[in-house]
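Archive record
______________

***
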Amino acid sequence: MARIDDLFALQHDRGASDLHLFAGSPPALRVRGDMEKIADESLDDDELREMLFEILTPGQRQEIEETGDLDFGYEVAGIARYRCNYFKQKNGIGAVFREIPSTVLTVDQLGLPQVLKQLAMLPRGLVLLTGPTGSGKSTTLAAIIEHANANRKCHIVTIEDPIEFVHRPKQCIVNHREVETHTQSFARALRAALREDPDIILVGEMRDLETTMLAIEAANTGHLVLSTMHTMGATRTIDRIVDMFPADQQSQIRTSLSESLKGVMSQALFKRMDKPGRIAALEILLVTPAAANLIREQKTYQLMTVIQTGRRMGMISLDDAIADLLQRRLISPEEAFEKAVEKDRFAKLLKAPPPEF
């Protein structure tokens, strides 16, 4: 048992999402979004380095020494998996560990919109989950995959950096691939996946032009492709994808997106008021013929109208989703105001609104 495993056990027991270990600073946990120190003394670089290097392979040790950065996955039996990031900083070594629960929660257990189950059952197309780092995208995406795993008979291939949630095969066959461990890159793994007879492909992140192009191609050739981006809102997400491509290709990409894109969900995470924990609010755009036409004609600024008129189909704006959580007294007005798009709507609910409101 590695010495750092005791800290992972503490992280798990405290319900913390992240463990922070930096030379020159006290160790800390992120609990319900807030940083909490777990000791007063700062960590010594030599001792921390020895503890962190204990769980690395020789190749990983070489990579952090040569490049100054390292991403990998680590599992503590009986506790959880961890997404690990090591880096060099001013005072020495540093590391952050994100806990990935060993149990994959369902859409119902997470209290997510039922329309996510419909997206999991699509025969083909591109479904994107967007939001800032730490907004719970991986957890929501895992719930969608797990619904497919339990209700479809198909082949699921996941491509991640590193592997996060591990899906035990139910009705489906599931293959997990990790970038740099099992394949050289997202793009290479995506290209290979098209020859592996998949029905569903999970791409951890569409982070570059080649990966994005291949994901759209896979969706257009009869596969259900699920992926994430660090954008907020359907309009910004679609515009961001188009802007990745050279100007002379953008018209073609809009057409391809209008045909392949089936849904965009933007997620924000909030502290709960009713009990310890956090809860997500999702903006949901389903790409109807009207939405596809707006994408094709470069009128994405009108997509909010499609969302507002598509409530019966399961569409909802982020502000409406936030208002729903607020009305159910699951989150505070302060949390709602902080993450709302139209802040005027929530400012009047604050005890002390900012002067500009």
